[in-house]
Amino acid sequence: MAIRRDMAVTIEAAEVTAALYRGRPCPPWLVRAVETALERVPALLDPVIVHRWVAVTAVSGEGAEVRAEGGRRRSLRIGPHARLLAGARRALVAAVSIGPRLDREAGRADRLEGYLLDCIGVMALGKVADAAAAVAETEARQRRWGVGPRISPGSLAGWPVEDVHVLCGLLPLAEAGLELSPRGVMHPLKSAVGLIGIGPGYGGSTVGSACHLCRHREDCWRRRQ
Ligand code: SF4
Fold it and tell me: Does a structural domain hold residue 225?
């Protein structure tokens, strides 16, 4: 179990405009607005990762079982894409967050700046998630294993959002400054929890995206595939 707060989260204006405009030219006034918003961002981020390794003890049908060291088995109702864990012997359960301050500032800012801060916050959360993925990649490399994609309840099609309780229950959320409401909403709001399998059954060395299997993909401006 580990809590990390030492990530450098760097976002360039070109990344933001490319994500928002999806390759189309971005008007200069918006580029300037993005640059202005970005100047404020470093002081508004409190990135944190809290993670734990679990053994993947079974994957069958639409479910998987995991067990933390010294703990009891937990069942995950992953759904029709449970095979994404079929190659895993271990999995990294990780919650990531950028803290509450950026969202507070976005709520106080004017409409455009608030929107841009919100978008930049989503991208920043993605960078923190990438840092968590790097933990899984390093562990897999040391064991000469491969890594699977990052998957999350509520995003991966067919995996009920209620399973955030199972994943979060494996982590010391409060020590990391995070909370999960009884309805499964994480606080701060720009937080997420997911799972990355590693094992000899995977071929890749970098954590992939499951955007093509995500229930939000049609509306998501951050999707990768
Ligand atoms: S489509 Fe969007 S919400 Fe879904 S996994 Fe990809 S980035 Fe995340």
Answer: no
